[in-house]
Amino acid sequence: MKNSLLLPFLYIISICLPFFQVQALHLDIHDDDSIRSTINSMTGELMNYWNGTDCKFVSSYWWLTGASMTVLLNNGILFDNNTYTDLVSKSLMYNAGSDHDYQPSDEYFNLGNDDQGIWGAAAMDAAELNLKQVDDSSASWLEISQAAFNRISGRWDNVNCNGGVRWQAFPWLSGYTYKNSISNGLLFQLAARLARFTGDSSYEDWVNRIWDWSTSSGFVNTTNYSVYDGSKASTNCTTIDHSQWSYNLGVYMTGVAYMYNYTQGDNIWKKRLDGFISHATSFFINNGIAWDPQCENTGTCNIDQTAFKGILMQSFGNAIRLAPYTRSKLYPLIETSATAAALACSGGYSGNSCGVHWSWDNSTWDGTYGVGQQFSALEAVQMLYVDKYPKLVTLSNSSDNRSNSSYASANSTTDNYEVNVSRPTEADRGGAGFLTFLAAFLLLGVSIWAMIEDEEGKIPSRTHQSNTETFEDKKKDETIMNV
Ligand SMILES: *[C@@H]1O[C@H](CO)[C@@H](O)[C@H](O)[C@H]1NC(C)=O
Ligand SMILES: *[C@@H]1O[C@H](CO)[C@@H](O)[C@H](O)[C@H]1NC(C)=O
Ligand SMILES: *[C@@H]1O[C@H](CO)[C@@H](O)[C@H](O)[C@H]1NC(C)=O
Ligand SMILES: *[C@@H]1O[C@H](CO)[C@@H](O)[C@H](O)[C@H]1NC(C)=O
Ligand SMILES: *[C@@H]1O[C@H](CO)[C@@H](O)[C@H](O)[C@H]1NC(C)=O
Ligand SMILES: *[C@@H]1O[C@H](CO)[C@@H](O)[C@H](O)[C@H]1NC(C)=O
Ligand SMILES: *[C@@H]1O[C@H](CO)[C@@H](O)[C@H](O)[C@H]1NC(C)=O
Ligand SMILES: *[C@@H]1O[C@H](CO)[C@@H](O)[C@H](O)[C@H]1NC(C)=O
Ligand SMILES: *[C@@H]1O[C@H](CO)[C@@H](O)[C@H](O)[C@H]1NC(C)=O
Ligand SMILES: *[C@@H]1O[C@H](CO)[C@@H](O)[C@H](O)[C@H]1NC(C)=O
Ligand SMILES: *[C@@H]1O[C@H](CO)[C@@H](O)[C@H](O)[C@H]1NC(C)=O
Ligand SMILES: *[C@@H]1O[C@H](CO)[C@@H](O)[C@H](O)[C@H]1NC(C)=O
């Protein structure tokens, strides 16, 4: 699994690719068959990365599997097609770990509050869609989500910045020094969804606590609803990284849409929802098409960033479902984004792998592929069916009424251990993050298998201090994607 294997593969890829750059997916948004075959193609490409042994995608990060569970779950219900239903339930359970809190032993020493938050949100999807639980004796989907919420909120830290949770969960991880919008935005969203689902007012208290902190810290600026990336805790959040990424706004916007619905259209939440929609359409839409200007302008989107537009598309869909008045503004943007995303899918071995750059909008694949690209494009196209999305249940009409607001609420780090693995030392983890990469193309099949080996134990990624440290990382990620 070392670099020696990589070169021959890259050679094969570079020889073969020109032959496979066939037609993009030509999506006709007014034709049901066209939409469905586009969705099936995109799903198939996504599932080429599935590893059934550990219930995760290969060549990707853990959170991306969590995010993808949402699109697969809705796919199965929308098309009454249970091809992946068991796979999704099994993955949601397996990745929750033995304590049912999304701190599984194989991710524990890499755990980000954002990773745990996105998985908690996926379990919430399962609860809201009334997905049958795999094993009657284990926790309900709601309880699993409550556990993730309790773990993350248990790390709320008033010592620095007057509140907020950090990016990474534990002190031995380098991102522990950073507080950011994605972690706090996901916690906010979880609190909002738990409030709506259970009607328990303590979740609403958390909603308000996180919202107030997010705005007073300046991470969310309510003058024009910019959502900034984050800040080092050591500066007391006085020095904010002002980079803006679509998924940061997206996770807050979804939470706000839930609160709007839960409060039956409260004006306070309407104003906030309108604020995010207005900022999203001015900042993350280019000629009607979703984009992340910070990396797409320069062609430097890393593995995480390829998935951000999928989260933005989810938030557009959630706004339409929970606040139907927003449909007239958002649905046309889903149509134009979906059309452009499909045009960007003419790459890779099959000729239908999707790229990151949708706003090119000219049938040109950008040369990148991966789980994030497939996830984002699939979210855009599947959201064309937002009006047919299933109704959400609450605790009162769920078929599984198990709820436990104190599930996994103990929050001392030693209590959280599931396995007796010694903590990695700084020396073990090395200095700067480094990835080695192996891409193995099964030449006789359509599957693309790729693996990442993370020597450090923590992949430097996401948007963390994006304007300073990640240039080298981005270059590495770019090398990975641009074969
Ligand atoms: C069900 O989904 C699978 C996987 O996406 C697809 O291959 C199959 O064609 C679908 N079945 C129908 C009847 O659409
Ligand atoms: C799939 O997961 C198993 C268990 O973690 C691992 O041993 C195997 O290498 C993985 N396969 C790929 C292709 O990554
Ligand atoms: C929002 O941004 C504006 C300027 O961009 C700034 O003047 C204002 O202080 C910010 N608000 C907060 C609460 O940080
Ligand atoms: C509004 O948003 C833009 C882009 O996000 C930002 O540069 C600007 O400072 C903001 N202005 C105010 C008044 O908040
Ligand atoms: C951060 O703010 C708190 C309370 O406002 C203060 O006690 C602490 O010293 C500050 N820390 C730094 C590093 O400025
Ligand atoms: C809340 O969501 C439901 C289901 O989508 C919708 O019918 C209802 O109109 C929404 N409530 C408000 C106040 O928009
Ligand atoms: C499509 O747009 C991109 C970005 O503007 C450009 O680099 C590329 O050459 C265009 N491709 C075609 C076929 O026009
Ligand atoms: C479940 O109940 C809620 C109200 O508590 C309602 O809005 C929703 O439509 C119901 N879901 C289903 C699937 O009937
Ligand atoms: C939960 O459901 C079971 C049976 O479906 C019922 O006996 C029980 O009373 C319910 N509990 C609550 C709190 O509604
Ligand atoms: C709720 O979770 C707590 C902590 O995990 C546990 O001690 C308690 O027994 C659970 N309550 C129920 C009713 O399952
Ligand atoms: C979680 O930790 C905080 C701060 O260390 C503490 O105040 C709180 O009581 C803890 N909560 C539980 C449920 O242990
Ligand atoms: C893990 O370590 C604790 C404390 O050292 C010990 O009590 C426990 O038995 C160990 N568990 C396993 C599975 O080895």
Would you mind describing this structure in some detail?
- This protein is mostly helical.
- It has helices spanning 3-20, 32-47, 62-78, 85-96, 113-128, 141-153, 181-198, 201-216, 246-262, 267-283, 293-296, 308-322, 327-343, 371-382, 426-429, 470-481; strands spanning 50-51, 56-57, 178-180, 220-221, 226-227, 230-232, 240-241, 285-286, 289-290, 435-441, 448-454.
- It has a single domain (32-409), classed as Glycosyltransferase (Alpha/alpha barrel).
- It contains 16 helices and 11 strands.
- A 3-stranded antiparallel beta sheet has the order 3-6-7. Strands 1-2 form a two-stranded antiparallel ribbon. It has a two-stranded antiparallel sheet with strand order 4-5.
- The radius of gyration is 21 Å and the shape is globular.
- The two termini are 18 Å apart.
User: Tally of extended strands?
Assistant: 11
What series of H and E elements makes up the topology? Answer: HHEEHHHHEHHEEEEHHEEHHHHHEEH
Strand order of the largest sheet: 3-6-7
CATH architecture: Alpha/alpha barrel
Uncertain runs: 1-21, 412-483
Write down the domain tally: 1
CATH top level assignment: Mainly Alpha
**Structural class per helix/strand content?**
mainly alpha
Percent helix, as a range, is 40-55%
Which fold name is given in CATH as the topology? Glycosyltransferase
* Fraction in beta strands: 5-15%
End-to-end gap = 18 Å
Cα-atom radius of gyration? 21 Å
Task: Characterize the biggest β-sheet.
Answer: 3 strands, antiparallel
Globally, the shape reads globular
Bound molecules: 2-acetamido-2-deoxy-beta-D-glucopyranose
Q: State mean pLDDT (0 to 100 scale).
A: 84
* Helix segment tally: 16
